[in-house]
Amino acid sequence: MSRFGRSRPDLEADPAPSERSSGGPLLEVTDLRTSFRTDRGLLKAVDGVTFTLEQGQTLGVVGESGSGKTVLSRSVMGLLPAGKKTLRGGSVRFEGRDIGDRSAAEMRDVWGQDIAMVFQDPMTSLNPVVRIGRQITEGLRHHLDMDKGTARETAVALLRSVGIPEPERRLDQYPFELSGGMRQRVTIAIAISCGPKLLLADEPTTALDVTVQAQILNLLQDKQRERHMAMILVTHDLGVVAGRTDHIAVMYAGRVVETAPTATLFGSMRMPYTEALLKCIPRTTDPSHTRLSALGGRPPDLISPPEGCRFAPRCPYAQERCHHEDPPLEYDASGTHAWACWYPVGTAEGSAALEANLSSGRPQALVAVGAGADAVREADAAAETEAIEAARQTEVALRPEPA
Amino acid sequence: MPELSPSAAPAAPAAAVVTVAITDGATKKRLGVAFWLSFSWILLVILLAIFARVLPLKSPTDTGLGRPGLGPSLHFWLGTDDLGRDTFARVVYGARVSMIVGFTSIAIGLAVGGTLGIIAGYYKGRLGSFIMSCTDVLLAFPTLVLALAIITFLGQNLRNVVLALGIISIAPIARIIRASTLTFAEREFVTAARSLGAKDIRILTREILPNVALPTFAFALVAVAVAIVAEGGLAFLGLSVKAPTPSWGGMINEGRTLLNQSPQVSLIPAAVMFVTVLAFNFAGDSLRSYFDVREGAL
Fold it and tell me: Does B298 touch chain A (CB under 8 A)?
């Protein structure tokens, strides 16, 4: 069972049901903060994230680009660039050991053997000039002290287990000889080669062809179950984590804004941001030419985030209070579902807030319910005309003067 | 693919297949004729240099084999020089000096400069800036003066010429390899290797080095050409191998006295050096663009 909170270590005492293995959770992240010093000021990429993860459980971390999910996964793993420009806070405990402030040298025993990572783009996460075989056997020989022959046999078995045909032949091939899906299978084989207890998958399907995305996700899930690994699946797509994770944490602007068991989250989401993310998924049951709902605006600047709730400027439910007071991440009576919102979706306050926004004609609210569709369409059309006009003018400007 | 008229529609799939096949063939990486010509010339020069002693050549140092300043003939393929020595034999033996100097000095440069460059590129912090400051100092030296100083202090022989040119090549090679390392050190496969617990030394030698090696090899060929020219310059100043050992630059210098009556005595070694340097540059450039294309396709 996972649990999230910005600063709620008190709830950690709550016993998890049956799944709890002996001796506490596998991964315990408390008030994790990661900031980067930039020329403009301190960029708080991860701003107080707390969660626990049990052995064999899967956690989905969902959020837009720039919501801090990648930095979160790298912070957990300790893979951030070392130096004065990176500031860390909070603790990461793996099997009870604090690995949060370990140096790279101390982490080397953890990396690969205890925690491994699958990266976003298999084009760049495999070394282009090194044969597949060596890339897999490297870790086996180093961590598990295998000799050349055993390592090669193990590599063949690994490649076969991730569904790569003719594994013997692949060992002597270079990454560019494989398709994107195959490459990602190879990176998964490499990641699980040393039997990690925790697998971090950082947008493992984002760079892949849609036709193989589901296969790769199923493969990850199979391997996770087979090996009883814990897995953190980082993605921007709520559709990816639905049905594949035990828990979901929705991140926005470096914070967890809603967390719940997967079924609960999809059944009764409370955070308007989660709702907006879900609305962005196109449905096959919709009639054709249905306009895709897009979430307007951009995530806030993490160097100077807005006062109050960080989602308020884009939120259809936002009231006066949201712009001044920062809502805490609080658990409901069940103790598993938490959200950070003053006017949650599906509650009386939420409906009232939306109603009020609609009647006062706030554009975010109008877009959200589709009532403003016409207005939006008009605005879009106007913008489009403008864009075409601008493009035409640029073209004119760029065209060489006729001789 | 060209647009198909409606009447051609039934043939479309076949046409598509053919078109694709053609484009594939056209975009396939080729090194080109210029590369293979250059490569053949370099190979010829290297083979002649290696087997100079075994080949049935006239002595390169015996004077008075013919009249001084003869033009090319059946007996003296490339004529004779100012002392009546066989120019062809001297050009072949001179190739030994040029090749040894070219390759060994760049090998020294690669070993030292390459190591420094890859370290400076990977450890970008204080160590990197320190190494780069050192190369800046080295680069600020007038190269010819530096070479003169080294050869004057250590003595005039082949080994010291190699050493001098090797030291001079360290700084530019270090900078180029650092630049190339910088791009690879940021790649995700380096992070991926770290995430599997690889040590820095392993990342440097097994992840970054193979990637840096390809472009570096291409650059090294160009560097060899530069070193050959530099040796020629030193020899022209009488600072390379001592006479009577032939070297291309030395031969150009010796032909100066006959420049009015028989210019070929200077021009022939100059032409050989010119073609050789051109060949190295061509080969290096072709290889560089060849590897670049491959990078892009990945």
Answer: yes
Query: pTM of the entire structure?
Result: 0.77
Q: Partners of A256 in the beta sheet?
A: A251
In the three-class reduction of DSSP (H, G, I as helix; E, B as strand; rest coil), residue A62 is classed as: strand
Tell me which of A70, A77, A102, A124 to substitute to probe the interface with B (most B C-beta atoms closer than 10 Å): A124
pLDDT, residue B27, reads 52
Q: Which of A316, A319, A237 minimizes the C-alpha distance to A67?
A: A237
Q: Is B7 on the interface with A (CB under 8 A)?
A: no
Least CB-CB distance to A127: which of B197, B207, B297? B207
A312-353: pLDDT as tens digits: 988 889 899 999 999 999 998 888 999 999 999 988 889 899
- For residue A252, the distance in angstroms to the closest alpha carbon of chain B comes to 25
Residue in chain A lying closest to B206 (CA): A130
Which ipTM did the prediction report?
Answer: 0.74
Average pLDDT over residues B280-284: 91
The pLDDT value recorded for residue B7 is 44
**For residue A137, what is the nearest residue in chain B, using CA coordinates?**
B196
A21-30, A201-210, A382-391: the lowest-pLDDT one: A382-391
What does R_g of chain B's alpha carbons equal in angstroms?
25
What is the DSSP annotation of A124-179? HHS-TTS-HHHHHHHHHHHHH---HHHHHHHHHHHHHHTT-SSHHHHTTS-GGGS-
Across the range A195-205, mean pLDDT stands at 92
